[in-house]
Amino acid sequence: MTPGRAARQSPMSETATHEMTLTPAGPGRWKTVAGQAWSNPGGGLWGGYAIGLAIRTLQAEPEAAGEALSLTLTYAAGLPAGPLDIRTRRIRQGGSIGVWEVELLPAGSDAVGVHAIVTVARRPKTPDFAFARMPKAPEPETLPPPPDAAGYSQHYGAAAFERRTLEGFPPTPGEDSRSLAWVRSRRGRWDKVLLGMVTDCSAPRVFYALGMGVMTTTLSLTVYLHATAEEIAAVGDDFILIECEGRTGGGGASDERSSYWRRDGKLLATSEQLAWYREAARDAPE
User: Could you give all domains of the chain from N- to C-terminal order, each with its CATH number?
Assistant: First the structure.
């Protein structure tokens, strides 16, 4: 029995997955506590955590039918680690497709930190087709594991994922923003929650143009979870291949797009992201 199905049968009980414990607080209301390990280097919660939490919440929401298919998140303000309130609202729930709103807030506050529109769906059996092809890449076992520098693997996205890079990391300014890496879960088998979380686990593309001395934050991120829950479960705890590139930046905004592939060439997910950036302030010469 999956955690989501268990939650629907007993909606007023606590449910937990990937250290996301949800406590019901009334219709369309939930509470959780985000651990400090999910904080990013700037101090606020990592954006991937918000993606996973939005998916996790709708898995537990008793009136949401189906699995997460797409999400568009707007990061309105930074969320701190610690107690969070979650609000859900059904925009429409049909027999096959549902559209839901999810808001994440610091506990006791009315200031929305992250706003999400999530499409859920009961996935029918239809003929498959694919035009996209997975990039050629050596097997992940031939690549060195990442160093565990100063406990880095215990914080940020590295708390959830191990990355073995083929190209494009660490970021260096140049003519090409493409990166390619094999990534696997440190949190057990892949599922919809983890796949959603990994879509915000690549270096900002502005670093590939202007270097690391840039302040940047995600404004909005859209995730398309093409694979069904069963197709994601078939990955087990294996590596998936992530290809990421940026196209343009200017006026403080830059974009990136990514694709997520199963080892056998199945395209699991794609994402689009818009980030805000500023050159870091330089100290005035003495």
Answer: 3-121 (3.10.129.10), 160-279 (2.40.160.210)
